[in-house]
Amino acid sequence: MSYASSAVKALAFDVFGTVVDWRGSVAREVTLIAKHMGLQLDAHAFADAWRAGYAPAMDRVRKGELPWMHIDSLHRMILDSIVDQFGLSKLNEEQRENLNKVWHRLTPWPDTVAGLNALKKQFTITTLSNGNFSLLTAMAKNAGLPWDCIVSAELFKHYKPDPETYHGVAGLLDLPIEQVMLCASHPSDLRAAKAQGMRTAYVMRPFEFGEHVPLPKVDAGEFDFVAQDFVDLARQLAD
Are 92 and 156 within one domain? Predict the structure, then answer.
């Protein structure tokens, strides 16, 4: 184990985009729905539009414009706001609720399960996601994700990147925050965690937003580790 990781006891993982392929998973499911309805739509544009409403919806909660809502409720609110745009207004309540649960059924990246199992041999591994507890539990069950525990922002009534989330996961694990490392594909999440004293591992996910969207820029040495995927991260942490 490297010097840089020797004090780390637990790894906390961002989930949407880092662990699972939200864009491809949503696009595949809505393609099937559109085919069944005899519609033609851009399934990836639909997934992008749904995801684009995520951060603004959380900000409305932060500002007090909306009461505290877990992510399933925010996802449903966003879904209802975009169905007309994509010709899906005829979806009934049962169909909309089932589509909203696609976020419980997201497919992991090819390296995810093997990489998590390798990392689990060395560290306690947990989620640290804005996804609600029931969503993350269903996702783990569906995708075979081998978490030691599930930590949701719902437990703190704060979304990342609020400081309460990063300190919250360390507190639940009864560890000093510097002994917990956030693993994420989003530099903004990592920077917020680093500012609170967490260690950081940037995991590249070049296809999260599509093949032609460049990876975000990060400075050399900005994070403790930079990895191609979870298997690569496990190798680096074992060195």
Answer: no
Tell me the C-alpha distance between 219 and 48, whole Å: 27
What are the φ/ψ torsions at residue 137 (nearest 5 degrees)? -65, -45
pLDDT tens profile 120-146: 999 999 999 999 999 999 999 999 999
Q: Which domain holds residue 145?
A: 3-19+109-238
Q: Quick: pLDDT tens for 18-67.
A: 999 999 999 999 999 999 999 999 999 999 999 999 999 999 999 999 99
Backbone angles phi and psi of 12, in degrees to 5: -110, 130
The b-or-e profile of 24-58 (16+ CB within 10 A means b, else e) is bbbbbbbbebbeeeeeebebbebbbbbbebbeebb
Verify that 64 and 179 share a domain, yes or no: no
Is the same domain home to 36 and 134?
A: no
Tokens representing residue 111 in the block = 């390296």
Return d(Cα 65, Cα 67) in angstroms, integer: 7
Into how many domains does the chain fold? 2
pTM for this entry:
0.95
Distance CA 209, CA 130 (A): 19
* Contact present, 100 and 79 (Cβ < 8 Å): yes
